[in-house]
Design brief:
- This protein is mainly alpha-helical.
- The chain has two domains: 1-32; 38-262, Orthogonal Bundle (MetI-like fold).
- It has helices spanning 2-8, 10-28, 40-49, 51-85, 87-100, 105-116, 120-144, 148-156, 161-198, 204-213, 217-245, 247-262.
- The two termini are 18 Å apart.
- Keywords: Cell membrane, Membrane, Transmembrane, Transmembrane helix, Transport.
- One of its GO terms (biological process) is transmembrane transport.
Length: 263
C-alpha cells in the first residue's frame, strides 16, 4: 500500500522535472537575461551559497507561521463548536465571518503594525487571520454533517448535548477539520511573508524585499524555494497528524480510492 501511495506521486514528480528542464533550457538558450530569470540550477547554487544568511530569516518566518497556525486552529475549533451549539451565534456571527474575508489582508497589515509595532505580534495575528477562516468553516460544516443515526441513538440513550458533541459530532467532524487545517497550512507561510513585507526586521519576506531592491533576482527565487518547502512540510505534517489521529478514516479513504481505480 505504501508503494502504491508513493507511485501515485510519480506523474506530479515527472511533470515538475519536465517543467524545470524546459525552464533551464529556455534561459540557457539566451531567450531571456539571467539577471531577469535565473536558471533552476543557479537558484539551487545560490540557495546553498547563501544558506547561512537565509537560515535566520527562515527561522523567524517559521516561528511566526507555527504560532499563528496554532492560535488559528484553537480559535477556529472553538468558534465552530459555538456556531454548532447556538443557532443565534450561527445567524449572527457566520455572516460577519464571511464578510471579514472580503477585507484585503495587505490593507489590514499596515494597521496592525501601527497598533502593535514591528515585533512578532502583528505577523502572528496576520497568519492567524489567514488560517482562521478555512479551519472554522470546515469544522462547522463537519459538525453539521453528523451521522443522524448515531445522533438518534445517543438521544435514545438520554445522552446530554455535550456528550453527543464529544462522542459523536466532534469525532465525525474531524475529517472536515483536517481538510480545513491542510488548506490553512498552505496559507500560513504566505501570511507571515505578507506581514514581513509590510514591515519587520527579519524573515523571508524581508529577505525577498531586500534582494529585489538589490536586483539579486536569483536570491529572491532562492527564498521562494524555501517558502515552498516550508509550506509543503507543514502540509505534510498536518497530513501525518491526521493519519495518526484518524486511522479509521484513512483506511476507508484508501479502500474507496482502490475501488474507484478498479472500477
Amino acid at each position: 500500500m505504501k508503494l502504491q501511495r508513493l507511485a501515485s506521486y510519480g506523474p506530479a514528480f515527472v511533470l515538475i522535472v519536465v517543467l524545470l528542464a524546459l525552464w533551464e533550457l529556455y534561459v540557457r538558450s539566451g531567450q531571456i537575461a539571467l539577471t531577469i530569470l535565473p536558471t533552476p540550477s543557479a537558484v539551487v547554487v545560490a540557495l546553498f551559497e547563501n544558506w547561512d544568511v537565509i537560515y535566520p530569516h527562515m527561522v523567524q518566518t517559521m516561528m511566526e507561521t507555527v504560532l499563528g497556525l496554532l492560535i488559528a486552529t484553537l480559535l477556529g475549533l472553538l468558534l465552530a463548536i459555538l456556531l454548532d451549539l447556538s443557532m443565534w451565534a450561527r445567524q449572527s456571527i457566520y455572516p460577519v465571518l464571511i464578510t471579514s474575508q472580503t477585507i484585503p489582508m495587505i490593507a489590514l497589515a499596515p494597521l496592525l503594525l501601527i497598533w502593535f509595532g514591528y515585533d512578532l505580534g502583528p505577523k502572528v495575528i496576520i497568519v492567524t487571520l489567514y488560517c482562521f477562516f478555512p479551519i472554522a468553516v470546515a469544522c462547522a460544516d463537519g459538525l453539521l454533517g453528523s451521522d443522524p443515526d448515531l445522533m438518534r441513538l445517543m438521544v435514545s440513550m438520554r445522552a446530554s448535548r455535550w456528550q453527543i458533541l464529544r462522542l459523536v459530532r466532534l469525532p465525525g467532524a474531524m475529517p472536515a477539520f483536517f481538510s480545513g487545517l491542510r488548506i490553512a497550512a498552505t496559507y500560513s507561510v504566505t501570511g507571515a511573508i505578507v506581514g514581513e513585507y509590510v514591515g519587520g526586521y527579519q524573515g523571508l519576506g524581508i529577505y525577498m524585499q531586500s534582494s529585489a531592491n538589490a536586483h539579486a533576482i536569483v536570491l529572491v527565487f532562492a527564498a521562494i524555494v524555501v517558502t515552498a518547502i516550508l509550506s509543503l512540510l507543514l502540509f505534510g505534517l498536518v497530513s501525518l497528524i491526521e493519519r495518526i489521529a484518524l486511522p479509521w478514516y484513512q483506511g476507508s479513504r484508501q479502500r474507496s480510492f482502490a475501488a474507484k481505480r478498479m472500477g
